[in-house]
């Protein structure tokens, strides 16, 4: 009778190891999911409940009113005007910020000695609190001795009558100037970082083939950074759409409603009139508008990034 050797197989741990990894994965992901629920899902549900109910600051969700709040908001000319004003403002400051940011980034890339100093100075507007930025530019536009008034008087122009923040036409552009000053450095630094990833050999080869100046930028530089520029524009647009602090500090929405943005309207309705239902409805409508405005730029960003 032949002797057969029996092999003793070790106990397989293949079933335990995936379960252990799954438990560790859930443990590490749990704080992120909790943060999303607390900071995202709960406010969204609160806004939805408030938009379809009769709610005040002290007594939320008193009665179910259906779409009544939304109908009131959509019929309110001031609210609709503030949404249009905010979208146009955001598009304007985003275009200016990205345009200036790209130009400054290109200049920084070519700067050899002063580049590091300039990059450090560019961080100053970014680290300045928005309240300080608003106060600073409010002083700049002060018709009674502000920087603008002083410069105009220095060149012989009577500046006492020039008060941008008191003008229905210039109030919002003046806020936009402060906004551009604060956020253009972010655009510059992001585009500059993208420029540093370019292969110098490609540019040198293009230069040898006769590409110089704008043609070099159009054919070599722009295709390399177009995706980054589109992404930065998308980020800048989202930041500009929610502008509130500069409006609050510099003009309080005035004169009249000339510089009233949607975020400021929501603040007034919720915290001054205590009408949480209508404020929630405005927020919901504005969220839909923001989504519709940003979707084309998100699609463009995705397309340019993957090309």
From TrEMBL:
Residues 1-16 have a biased composition (Polar residues). Its main location: membrane. Residues 1-20 are annotated as: Disordered. The keyword Nucleus does not apply. It is found in: Cell membrane. The chain crosses the membrane at residues 27-52, 87-108, 120-140, 220-239, 246-267, 279-300. The keyword Cell membrane applies. Keywords: Cell membrane, Membrane, Sugar transport, Transmembrane, Transmembrane helix, Transport. Residues 83-297 form the ABC transmembrane type-1 domain. It comes from the Bacteria. It is a multi-pass membrane protein. Belongs to the binding-protein-dependent transport system permease family. This is Multiple sugar transport system permease protein.
């Amino acid at each position: 009778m032949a002797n057969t050797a029996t092999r003793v197989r070790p106990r397989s741990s293949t079933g335990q190891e995936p379960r252990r990894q799954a438990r560790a994965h859930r443990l590490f992901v749990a704080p992120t999911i909790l943060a999303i629920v607390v900071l995202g899902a709960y406010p969204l549900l609160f806004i939805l409940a408030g938009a379809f109910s009769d709610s005040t600051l002290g007594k939320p969700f008193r009665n179910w009113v259906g779409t009544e709040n939304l109908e009131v908001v959509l019929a309110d000319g001031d609210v609709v005007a503030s949404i249009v004003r905010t979208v146009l403002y955001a598009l304007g400051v985003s275009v200016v910020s990205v345009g200036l940011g790209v130009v400054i980034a290109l200049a920084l890339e070519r700067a050899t000695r002063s580049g590091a100093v300039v990059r450090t100075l560019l961080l100053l507007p970014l680290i300045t609190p928005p309240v300080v930025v608003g106060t600073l530019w409010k002083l700049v536009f002060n018709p009674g001795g502000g920087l603008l008034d002083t410069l105009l008087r220095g060149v012989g122009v009577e500046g006492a009558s020039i008060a941008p923040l008191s003008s229905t036409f210039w109030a919002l552009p003046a806020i936009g100037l402060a906004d551009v000053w604060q956020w253009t450095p972010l655009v510059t630094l992001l585009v500059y970082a993208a420029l540093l990833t370019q292969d110098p050999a490609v540019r040198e080869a293009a230069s040898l083939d006769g590409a110089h100046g704008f043609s070099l930028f159009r054919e070599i530089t722009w295709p390399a950074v177009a995706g980054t520029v589109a992404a930065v524009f998308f980020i800048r647009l989202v930041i500009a759409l929610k502008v509130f602090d500069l409006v609050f500090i510099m003009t309080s929405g005035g004169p009249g409603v000339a510089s009233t943005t949607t975020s400021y309207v929501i603040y007034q309705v919720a915290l001054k009139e205590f009408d949480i239902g209508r404020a929630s409805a405005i927020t919901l409508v504005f969220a839909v508008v923001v989504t519709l405005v940003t979707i084309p730029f998100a699609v463009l960003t995705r397309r340019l990034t993957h090309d």
